[in-house]
Amino acid sequence: MAVVLLFAAGIWLARDFAAPITEALAVHAVLGMAVFFASAVVAVLLPMLSNLPLMPLAVLAWGPWWSAGLLLSGWVVGAMLAFAFGRHARALILRHFPSVQRHAQIDRLMLSRHRWWSLVLLRMTFPVDVLSYALGLFSARTTAVENAGSTAVGAAPFALLFALFPTLSGTAQWTVLAASLLVFVLYVVWLLRDPADAADTGGT
């Protein structure tokens, strides 16, 4: 919720102070891009942080496509580092907490015949940071290339959404928010459905 409010504050700043923000970022364009990219990487490595409030300012300075590319690139690099950290910590954690492996079989969430697309769908369902650490720690079958590639594909729609959102009109923004909230509620209802009802539905 706090991230949403900060993102909204970023949109307000970008609209009400467009001229000085554009001028400041134009003078330090390369530095600004580097900072924005680095903030996206750090946001993956440290899940309690987020650089999304900076997105409206980035869109104002460099446009939605450059901003989406920088955000996605930062997410991919962050996912690669988080995966590497998880993979290197795997042996230590399993040595001290061997029972963890039995309760963290993330590979069960992936279809053996369609591992790649399963990873992409997981990317579109779980946060980049949490999933990257989890894959590194508990998925012995997932490679670094699969982790990076699935991040690039699965997270791309969200990078574009966050980049294009500040360019929409107020009415369109509220429409997108309402539609997103509806989809989220339906998804939660589906997750919390009665297993017996789900079994009956599947059997009919």
Task: Give an account of the 3D structure.
The chain is mainly α. It contains ten helices and no strands. It has two domains: 166 residues, no CATH class; 35 residues. The C terminus is likely disordered.
Q: Main traits of this protein?
A:
204 residues, single chain, mainly alpha, 79% helix, 0% strand
Unreliable stretches (pLDDT < 50, length at least 5) are 198-204
CA(first)-CA(last) distance: 40 Å
Radius of gyration: 19 Å
Let me know the number of strands: 0
- The number of helical segments is 10
Q: Averaged pLDDT, please?
A: 78
Shape: globular
Supply the number of structural domains.
2
Reading the helices and strands in chain order gives: HHHHHHHHHH
Structural class: mainly alpha
Give the fraction of residues assigned to helices: over 70%
Percent strand: under 5%
Question: How would you sum up the major sheet?
Answer: none
Would you kindly provide a brief summary of this structure?
With 204 residues, the protein is mainly α. The chain contains 10 helices and no strands.
Layout of strands and helices, then pairs:
Elements: H1 2-16, H2 18-27, H3 29-45, H4 55-96, H5 100-103, H6 115-125, H7 128-138, H8 144-164, H9 170-191, H10 195-203
Helix pairs in contact: 1-4, 3-4, 4-7, 4-8, 6-8, 7-8
